[in-house]
Amino acid sequence: MPEDKKTIENRINDHIKIYPHYERILQQPSWHIRQQEEYLKEIKKINLPYLIIKTEKLPDNNLIKQILKWIDEK
Q1: Is residue 1's pLDDT more than 60?
Q2: How many H-runs (helices) and E-runs (strands) does the chain carry?
Q3: pLDDT in tens, 26-47
Q4: How many CB atoms lie within 10 A of CB 8?
Q5: Computed from CA positions of residues 43, 45, 46, 52, in that sequence, does the dihedral angle turn out positive or negative?
Q6: Farthest CA pair distance, the chain
């Protein structure tokens, strides 16, 4: 997800609607942004190929096409 607190808040709220128990382990949007930054930092340390997906909505069928192309499936 984009590093945008409002978008992450919306995603969290959607998640809570589907899984109310998620609220017990809920973190602030800033925590999610830091986790994304840490994850990217670790990925860049390895020599394996990686794909960064940018989206503001899930599910996103265009992403599926992009991922399948990246793994040479379509």
Answers
A1: no
A2: 3, 0
A3: 888 899 889 989 999 999 999 8
A4: 20
A5: positive
A6: 40
Rounded average pLDDT over 43-70: 86
Residue 2: the pLDDT is 64
Amino acid at 32: H
Residue 59 carries which side chain, given as an amino acid letter?
P
Counting Cα atoms < 13 Å in the Cβ hemisphere of 17 gives 6
Q: Interhelix angle for 5-18 vs 29-43, to 10°?
A: 100
Going 16 to 35 to 3 to 48, the CA torsion angle's sign is negative
Q: Would you list the domain boundaries of the chain? A: 5-70
Residues 51/67, Cβ–Cβ less than 8 Å: yes
What single-letter amino acid sits at 49? P
